[in-house]
Amino acid sequence: MKELEYPFDADYIVKKARRLRKELLADGTQRIEKRIAVLGGATTHDVVRVLELFLLHHGIAPVFYESEYNRFREDALFPEEEFASFQPDVIYLHTCLQNIREWPLLSDDAGTVQGKLDAVTSEYVRIWEALKEKHHCAVIQDNFVLPSYRLLGNRDASDVHGRVNFVDRLNAFFAEYAATHEGFYLQDVRYIAACYGQDAWCDPSAWYLYKYAQALSAVPYLAHNLANMIKSVFGKNKKALVLDLDNTLWGGVVGDDGKEGIEIGEETATAEAYTAFQRYIKAQKDIGIVLNVASKNTEDNARAGLTHPDSVLAPEDFLYLQANWDPKSDNVMQIAKGMNIGTDAIVFVDDNPAEREIVTANVPGVAAPALTTPEHYIRDIDRAGYFEVTNLSEDDRKRVQMYRENAERMKLEESFTDYHAYLLSLEMQAEIAPFAPVYYERISQLTNKSNQYNLTTKRFTVEEIKAAAEDPACITLYGRLKDKFGDNGVVALLIARVDSASAAGQSAASGQETGIAEQSAASGGEAGVAEKDVVSGGETDAAGQGGPTAEEGVVAHIELFLMSCRVLKRDMEVAMMDALYEQCRARGIKTMYGTYIPTAKNGMVADFYKLRGFTQVESETATGSAATAAAGDEKDAAGNGGTDAAAGATATAAGSTDAPGTTRWRYDIPADWQPQCDVIEIAGAL
Question: Is residue 265, in this structure, part of any structural domain at all?
Answer without folding.
Answer: yes
